[in-house]
Write a structure and sequence with these properties.
By secondary structure, this protein is mostly helical. Among the domains are: 5-186 and 214-222, no CATH class; 627-672, no CATH class. 59% of the residues lie in helices and 4% in strands. The protein is built from 29 helices and 10 strands.
Length: 673
């Protein structure tokens, strides 16, 4: 169904509010699930058609015409959406009833998905008006713009008529004009003008506002994940108080605008709208039932703290950690048993869909404002605040959501936040009395550590986006093992059980250890170092034990990075390692002498390649190998390396001086050659 956007603008000019509402409702219904994708998507479709043309060696002439018509129609549709957005921004400033205002805001929300339509929405007056409708401001601090007059709408309608006439003229001109227009739209110009040469009806739509000049096409997209879930509970956007529904739509528009426009982000910060957002979030704590707008308030706060570092710092200075901790506590309906111990009811219902989404947003914001505190020494007051937060995060790890995907996402963001908090405050996770059915080790409650281990196993099995999904949990477990002795012992028993079967390489198999060892040779440097660090810490940073469990080939990367190839062990300053020994099993001792230290397994016995050769033949073969290595070295194909006194790999030439200092002469080297 084609929506008459020109008809909407005409109705707005005539102040025919009934018709405007009907038209906009049709527009919203038609494009509710539509999103605007970059020109690259259209180019991919064009490339696909080109490949089909090359394959079939034939192409109808009408195909070329249809391509040109498609591109021209997209140009015209874009221009119509730009004008509709401009008109609606002025329309929502006028006195309209709540129902029509809500429908208009929903139309702006759909339009705000397109970066090229954002220009009317990123002005200070538009942002302040949206902020007022969303409840961020009271509206007394700026002068309300005057309502658009008849001339304003006449200019818009004239521009639309000229665009339609120009479109017909270009269609008669053929594909050559269409190709030239497409090239023009891809050029980064200083201002946004219509490609047909007619000036835009509004000034100031420039790249300074963060408006992309790339052509964009309207495509079907995925619905808002949260709203799709809420439909299962009978959720409907038409339900609820009109003022609350209006605030929610305005908040959604702001979320789209600040996400898609760097200029809007800058103006949001300059206009200090974050203060109103902080007040809204604070006021919403403890409301029962919570406002349906709260999720979008949190989403907007997350976007701003993620995109504008100064706002993240400002929120932290405004006691943001306490505010968000209280909001998290309210969402989880926490009941306290002790100072840093929350009550965990084993028969409590799963976290609802709405609450789980709000909790996830809170965790993301908390990460944005605390990620720099990990290595800092907190004050006594801050440490108490962080321990209070960690006690609540323990519930996030142990409780389940209605959907399994939400549980995994909730635990993922909890892990991210735990890895950002000061390490000494994480002892709250262990300082919990044992309960019936608790996972325990040496009398210490290991429920949280066990959940983290299971979470890591799931991430290891997923097989995609390894770095993003695994790096936080690997780092968290590594640092926890360094700081907490019982955690290291428990994880070592789970991940590195005593060696019995050494017939396989350490990286072969489906165990947790084998999966982590495989990551030690991953192409991504950060990921392989994180995986190696965890195994190394579980081995108490003992080189011999590390090589025993992983094989020298897998261990060489970390040992070379730390200068431990010589075999010496350097303990971390913050490590809390006990003096327990690593006793070998009977099975391991029986096969120890046959284990290849490079591969870490018992290799099949190979025949002696020099068997049956005389001493002269052996000497001749040795000389031939020496000549081959010398040739490769001279031609810089290989470079002989050795280990210096600090255990680092260095060229053999760099070792000659050290050896000479120890009493060898240069003549000794000549004789050896």
């Amino acid at each position: 169904m084609e929506i008459d956007l020109e008809g909407i603008i005409q109705c707005i000019k005539r102040r025919d509010t009934d018709s405007v509402q009907i038209y906009l409702q049709e527009f919203n219904k038609e494009y509710a699930q539509c999103f605007f994708f970059d020109k690259e998507e259209r180019n991919r479709r064009k490339q696909k058609r080109l490949e089909e043309f090359k394959k079939n060696k034939v192409r109808d002439f009408t195909d070329s015409d249809s391509d040109g018509e498609e591109y021209e129609q997209e140009d015209r549709d874009l221009f119509l959406r730009q004008n509709l957005a401009l008109v609606l921004v002025g329309f929502i400033r006028t006195e309209v009833n709540c129902s029509l205002l809500k429908v208009s805001l929903r139309s702006l929300r759909i339009l705000s998905r397109d970066k090229r339509v954002l220009a009317p929405l990123v002005t200070d007056s538009a942002l302040l008006n949206l902020a007022k409708l969303a409840g961020l401001t009271k509206g007394e601090t700026y002068e309300e713009p005057s309502d658009p007059d008849t001339t304003f709408y006449d200019n818009i309608i004239v521009s639309l008529a000229e665009a339609k006439a120009q479109h017909s003229h270009d269609a008669d001109a053929g594909m050559e004009t269409s190709e030239q227009m497409e090239e023009c739209t891809s050029v980064d110009s200083g201002n946004v003008e219509r490609m047909d040469g007619v000036s835009s009806p509004w000034p100031g739509l420039s790249q300074a506002h963060g408006v992309s000049t790339h052509q964009r096409a309207l495509e079907r997209g995925r619905r808002d994940r949260r709203e799709s879930k809420m439909e299962g509970e009978g959720y409907s956007e038409e339900e609820g108080d009109s003022e609350e529904a209006q605030r929610k739509e305005a908040m959604k528009v702001l979320c789209n605008v600040v996400y898609n426009s760097s200029w809007a982000q800058e103006r949001f910060s300059a206009l200090r709208l974050i203060n109103g957002l902080i007040e809204l979030v604070s006021a919403g704590i403890g409301c029962s039932p919570p406002s349906s707008v709260q999720f979008y308030e949190l989403r907007l706060m997350f976007l701003m703290t993620a995109l504008r570092p100064e706002l993240s710092k400002q929120l932290q200075q405004a006691d943001g950690v306490s505010i968000l901790t209280a909001a998290l506590e309210s969402c989880l309906e926490v009941q306290w048993k002790d100072q840093y111990q929350c009550m965990l009811n084993p028969v409590a219902p799963p976290i609802s869909l709405d609450a789980s989404q709000r909790i996830i947003e809170i965790l993301k914001i908390l990460f944005n404002i605390t990620f720099s505190t990990h290595r800092l020494e907190p004050t006594e007051e801050d440490a108490a605040q962080y321990r209070h937060l960690v006690a609540i995060l323990r519930l996030c790890l142990l409780r389940k959501c209605v959907l399994a995907d939400d549980t995994d996402e909730l635990q993922g963001h909890t892990v991210n936040l735990l890895s950002a908090l000061p390490l000494q405050c994480l002892d709250v996770l262990l300082n919990v009395p044992l309960m019936p059915g608790s996972e325990q080790f040496n009398g210490v409650n290991m429920d949280c550590v066990h959940k983290l281990l299971l979470f890591m196993e799931r991430r290891l099995e997923q097989g995609d986006k390894f770095k993003e999904k695994l790096t936080p949990i690997l780092n968290l477990l590594t640092e926890s093992c360094r700081a907490h002795r019982e955690t290291r012992k428990y994880l070592r028993n789970q991940i590195l059980p005593p060696l019995r079967d050494v017939s396989q390489r350490p990286e072969e198999g489906s165990t947790v250890k084998s999966r982590i060892v495989r990551l030690m040779t991953h192409l991504d440097t950060d990921l392989k170092h994180c995986a190696a660090d965890l195994i190394f810490v579980l081995c108490k940073e003992n080189v011999r034990r590390f090589v025993k469990y992983t094989g020298y080939g897998n261990a060489a990367g970390l040992l070379a990075t730390r200068g431990l190839l010589g075999g010496q062990t350097t303990l971390s300053v913050s490590a809390q390692y006990s003096s327990d020994s690593d006793s070998d099993t009977e099975e391991y001792r029986r096969q120890k002498d046959r284990i290849n230290p490079v591969t870490g397994r018992v290799e099949a016995q190979q025949p002696d390649p020099m068997e049956g050769m005389s001493e002269e033949e052996k000497e001749e073969e040795a000389k031939r190998l020496i000549k081959l290595f010398s040739k490769l070295s001279r031609e810089d194909i290989i470079q002989p390396m050795g280990v210096d006194s600090e255990g680092r790999l260095v060229p053999m030439a760099g070792l000659q001086d050290n050896i000479t200092d120890e009493g060898h002469s240069d003549s000794d080297f000549e004789e050896e050659k």
